[in-house]
Amino acid sequence: MSKPLDGLRVLILEDEFLIAMDVEQLCRDSGAKDVAIARSLHELDDPTGEPPAFDVAIIDLMLAGVSTLDFARQIHQRGVPFVFASGHSDLQEIAEAFPGITVVGKPYAGDDLISAVAAAVASGRSRPLSTP
């Protein structure tokens, strides 16, 4: 029987250590092949200029006070599915900038987060944004 994240490479952008570890375990228990955690956007910088290899991302809106929206736009334009997992209550900007992208509010149930990630992968939200 397959699991919801069977074989996927998952990137977790989360600056809270315990939350990141919990989400990593949820992903692994749900079949993820590989799980990478970045606690800051700088951890994603690669000297070769190659983007990190992942199939889906779970993105906190703020990492140590730094917005992740530009990163989210970049991967969205590349066609990589993702969900936001955030404790921020003002989500209007997110809804406007990323229509159709799921925001899972903290605190969340693990099943809700994994279901949102699996749905993002399955629903074709990996289609790039149209450019003007």
From TrEMBL:
PROSITE patterns: RESPONSE_REGULATORY. The keyword Signal does not apply. The keyword Phosphoprotein applies. It holds the Pfam family Response_reg. The modification 4-aspartylphosphate is found at residue 60. Keywords: Phosphoprotein. GO terms for biological process: phosphorelay signal transduction system. Residues 9-121 form the Response regulatory domain. InterPro entries: CheY-like_superfamily, Sig_transdc_resp-reg_receiver. This is CheY chemotaxis protein or a CheY-like REC (Receiver) domain.
